[in-house]
């Protein structure tokens, strides 16, 4: 199948998942994850109407950004070392992977230089043993308060990368947990914190994530093919 066909297929599955969950499909945005894929494939997807892309490696992203002719919206979704933040400055609309204060402070420093505000999500480690990135649930509220105090970041929601489990139904509790955490934090009325975005769900489990409230699904291989 072509990239265009894959996108159409995913969009229709998003619609169906929304229907099952009684949700408005406009609440769910598809982030096409193009890491390791060449700029030509991104152009192909953009031509087919996909305008939101996610990348995971800062330098690879920066190089592609400079090569792309079609204007698209970029999200950064991968683990981020503090010394790589500069490669993203001014180029991404949303960073999904803020999981510690030191990283947020470096984002603050970089975006202050260009006098712009960048949207961020707080990435959580939902007790998954094999995943090292993501803040712990116990430190979430404190981290939200600290990040909310930084003037060049705006917190939009939460992100999680649950373990890969062959049966997507087994991932459902992780998605549900992320939504519950967002609701709990929203009920605390922390100044500057309104968690409306939930970034969760990938190629093999995005439909379950949508049923559990995802507003951003990050889909790579189901659009662009397997990564080597
Ligand atoms: C690579 C990646 C994805 C996409 O994974 P697929 O299984 O190819 O859909 C989603 N989220 C993150 C954080 C990723 O690094």
Describe what this molecule looks like in 3D.
The protein has 228 residues and is of the alpha/beta class. The chain has one domain (3-224): TIM Barrel. The chain is built from 8 helices and 9 strands. The longest helix is centred in the N-terminal third of the chain and has 19 residues, at 3-21. The mean pLDDT is 96. Residues 33, 35, 56, 77-78, 161, 202-203, 218-222 line the site of pyridoxal-5'-phosphate (PLP).
In short:
By secondary structure, this protein is α/β, with parallel strands linked by helices. 38% of the residues lie in helices and 19% in strands.
| Class of secondary structure makeup | alpha/beta
The stretches of 5 or more residues where confidence is low (pLDDT under 50) are: none
Number of domains: 1
Overall helicity: 25-40%
Largest sheet: 9 strands, parallel
Written as H for each helix and E for each strand, in order along the chain, the element string is HEHEHEEHEEHEHEHEH
User: What hetero molecules are bound to the protein chains?
Assistant: pyridoxal-5'-phosphate
> Which geometry do the CA atoms define?
globular
Terminal CA distance: 18 Å
Q: CATH superfamily name?
A: Alanine racemase
**CATH class value:** Alpha Beta
- Give the oligomeric state of the chains in this entry, treating copies of one chain as homo and distinct chains as hetero: single chain
The whole-number mean of residue pLDDT values reads 96
Rg calculated over all Cα atoms: 17 Å
Number of strands: 9
Q: Note the total helix count.
A: 8
């Amino acid at each position: 199948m072509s990239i265009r066909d894959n996108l159409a297929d995913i969009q229709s599955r998003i619609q169906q998942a929304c229907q099952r969950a009684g949700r408005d499909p406009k609440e769910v945005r598809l982030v096409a994850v193009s890491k390791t894929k060449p700029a030509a494939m991104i152009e192909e997807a953009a031509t087919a109407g996909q305008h939101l892309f996610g990348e995971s490696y800062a330098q690879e992203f920066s190089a592609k950004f400079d090569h792309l002719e079609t204007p698209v919206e970029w999200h950064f979704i991968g683990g981020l070392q503090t010394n790589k933040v500069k490669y993203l400055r001014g180029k991404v609309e949303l960073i999904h992977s803020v999981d510690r204060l030191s990283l947020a402070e470096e984002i603050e420093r970089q975006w202050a230089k260009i006098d712009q505000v960048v949207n961020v999500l707080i990435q959580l480690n939902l007790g998954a043993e094999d995943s090292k990135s993501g803040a712990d649930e116990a430190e979430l509220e404190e981290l939200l308060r600290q990040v909310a105090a930084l003037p060049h970041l705006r917190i939009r929601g939460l992100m999680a990368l649950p373990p890969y489990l062959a049966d997507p139904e087994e991932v459902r509790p992780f998605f549900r947990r992320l939504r519950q955490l967002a609701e709990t934090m929203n009920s605390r009325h922390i100044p500057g914190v309104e968690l409306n975005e939930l970034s969760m769900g990938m190629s093999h489990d995005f439909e379950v994530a949508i049923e559990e409230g995802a507003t951003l699904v990050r889909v790579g291989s189901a659009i662009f093919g397997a990564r080597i």
